Amino acid sequence: MASTVTSGTRPYLLLVTTMLLWGSGFGASKVIVDHLPHSVVATLRFGGGALALLVALRLSRQPGARRRRPPLRDWARAAGAGVLGVFVYNVLFFWGLSLAPAIDGSTIVPVMSPVLTTSFLLVMGQERASVARVAGLATGAAGAVVFFVGSGGEAGAGQGRLAGDLLFLLSACCWAAFTLTGRRVLAGIDPLKATTYATVSGAVLLAIYSAPSAAEVAWSDVPAYVWLNVAFVALGPTAVANLLYYRGIRDVGPASASIMMFVVPVVGTACSALFLGESFGTVQAVGAVVLLVGAVLAVTQGRLPVRRGN
Predict the structure, then answer these.
(1) What span, in angstroms and rounded, lies between the C-alpha atoms of 216 and 210?
(2) Which of UniProt's keywords are assigned here (predicted)?
(3) What's the CA gap between 88 and 28, in Å, rounded?
């Protein structure tokens, strides 16, 4: 019985760790974006993450074991996921982070991602459209509208914050699609290899995209604490967190894994408030609460998913 409980709860413990790392990564990334172009920050984060994963992949090989290369199809799937979940997602996300506070991103991306994932599953007929789920989606949509209205009306923010929040929304769409492709990617390849191939492919594209901006950076003027944040986001919220998330998708499925995203706004909001002094306006705060309530109802239908045994 104990082993059954452990095997059943372990994937969720790993996913909670993922969400804690992701939540703390919003504030750390904002610190870096304040000193470097957003495209360069994305490259540093995922380039560093790719190197860490390549080292981990190398160390994971058993001594004397025969090296088995995955079929080209499996590699291509993982690389394609990296284009969507690493390159496109991060171009949008870090662009948004350069315009809006980290506290906005820590609410929009992790809350809207599971809502969009659930919506896609409903459209594709893979989830049941219950009354609770439809009511949750409607409530979440209303909360999102209120949140974005608050972004545009925030005193002194101009339209920059609203534009940043819309970019966060687009990045949430990318992450939802990335989550839905996860199980297919993992069908013929283990999570470490899939995560590594996806991160490397996305990081290469980010490097090409950011090259013109990187050439203009005065690297000697970058403060030491910025480099500490770069190291943290590359290792924790990128290499480790993405690997654990892929494992979570494999073990509990995309719908259940996406539910755990609701831990991120709590952690992200706390970090942004404590370390960056950021806060919501009144209208945004109301919208965030309504959005979160609707999202939880839509994804869970008022109950936590139960993983069936094989």
Answers:
(1) 10
(2) Membrane, Transmembrane, Transmembrane helix
(3) 20
Interhelix angle 2-33/224-234, rounded to 10 degrees, is 150
Distance separating alpha carbons of residues 45 and 234, to the nearest angstrom: 4
Q: Map 40-55 to HEC letters.
A: HHHHHHHHHHHHHHHH
pLDDT at 273: 87
Compute the chain's Rg from CA coordinates: 19
pLDDT tens profile 82-113? 888 889 999 999 999 999 889 888 888 888 88
CA 120 and chain centroid, separation:
17
Distance between CA atoms of residues 7 and 130, nearest Å: 30
Q: Are 102 and 276 in contact (CB under 8 A)?
A: yes
Distances in whole angstroms, Cα of residue 197 to Cα of each of 74, 113, 204 = 10, 23, 11
Tell me the three-class secondary structure of the chain, residue by residue: CHHHHHHHHHHHHHHHHHHHHHHHHHHHHHHHHCCCCHHHHHHHHHHHHHHHHHHHHHHCCCCCCCCCCCCHHHHHHHHHHHHHHHHHHHHHHHHHHHHCCHHHHHHHHHHHHHHHHHHHHHHCCCCCCCHHHHHHHHHHHHHHHHHHHHHHHCCCCCCHHHHHHHHHHHHHHHHHHHHHHHHHHHHHCCHHHHHHHHHHHHHHHHHHHHHHHHCCCCHHHCCHHHHHHHHHHHHHHHHHHHHHHHHHHHHHCHHHHHHHHHHHHHHHHHHHHHHHCCCCCHHHHHHHHHHHHHHHHHHHCCCCCCCCCC
pTM of the model: 0.79
Residue type, 246: Y
